[in-house]
Design goal:
alpha/beta; Rossmann fold
Length: 289
């Protein structure tokens, strides 16, 4: 559907890894008026034409901000008290549309890509928290509020992430060993720029119904393959050591047909994405020396 002229978008967690890239993308859309909620001081983030509000997602003021916006994008890390406050604010403020960044890791361990209606089987503590947040928001988003749950693949692209790709690049640049749990684990990796463009498209469109959409590459890669590609683009070897074992799924791939049909799908493949990530890390490490 077409974008709504003058749409007001509130991003909760807009200075984080994904949020800062999303703000950059929305900066190119003149029809978007963007506000950002952040709890930490602005450091490396360069304020754009967005309005920045420093407050915690646990504070009552969130409700007033929601009431002044058409769309709310929720990007914060799992936090029970903050999400309960956000859910309560949604009930009262009734924004037109809420976009929530969830994870494809909620799907069951399977050899085939999992569609949006596939069975969920959260395993780790993080996955259980995301599953509970989905439930909270579904219960809160009623009447005038449409809820879009964007289940994201394994997002990478800069040091702002604490995922395995970011840790691997740090290990390569610092010459330190990388702790890994399973080199055979398969994940659906997607670059943060593709994720941000998809979230922007979701926020800018008009929505009247609840839905789930996978924002993913639709293809899996095992960790050993990813590490070999990182070593190749970085020109450095990475020593692997055994990390602490946790309960986790072995193979998670999300079906991205809906994402491809609606928004064209990802534009950055894994090899190109890791090259872009390497350049970001190299630039940062060069500035530190």
């Amino acid at each position: 559907m077409s974008s709504k002229k003058g749409k007001k978008i509130l991003i909760i967690g807009g200075t984080g890894f994904i949020g800062s890239v999303l703000v950059d993308v929305l900066n190119h859309h003149e029809e978007a008026s963007v506000s950002v909620v952040h709890s930490q001081p602005l450091k490396e983030v360069i304020p754009s034409r967005a309005l920045y509000y420093r407050l915690s997602a646990e504070e009552p003021a969130i409700e007033g901000l929601m009431a002044a916006h058409d769309v709310v994008v929720v990007l914060i890390r799992p936090h029970k008290k903050a999400m309960q406050n956000i859910a309560n604010a949604i009930r009262k403020a009734q924004p037109s549309h809420v976009v929530y960044a969830s994870t494809t890791l909620l799907y069951d361990d399977a050899d085939t890509p999992q569609a949006e209606d596939a069975r969920l089987r959260p395993v780790s503590a993080h996955e259980l928290e995301k599953s509970e947040e989905e439930r909270l928001l579904k219960a809160a988003a009623k009447n005038k509020t449409a809820l879009t749950i964007a289940r994201l693949g394994s997002v990478y692209g800069d040091r702002g992430s604490d995922g395995i790709v970011s840790r691997a690049f740090h290990a390569a640049f610092q010459g330190e060993p990388l702790r890994v749990r399973s080199l055979s684990s398969v994940r659906d990796y997607i670059h943060v720029e593709d994720v941000a463009r998809a979230l922007a498209a979701l926020a800018l469109r008009s929505s009247r119904q609840h839905e789930v959409i996978n924002i993913s590459s639709g293809a899996g890669a095992d960790l050993e393959k990813v590490l070999r590609l990182i070593e190749r683009v970085a020109g450095k070897s990475i020593k692997r050591t055994e990390g602490r074992k946790i309960k986790e799924s072995g193979k998670i791939i999300a079906d991205n047909k809906k994402y491809v049909k609606r928004f064209g799908g990802p534009t950055i493949d894994l090899k190109a994405g890791l090259k872009k990530t390497f350049e970001r890390f190299r630039s940062w490490y060069d500035r530190r020396t």
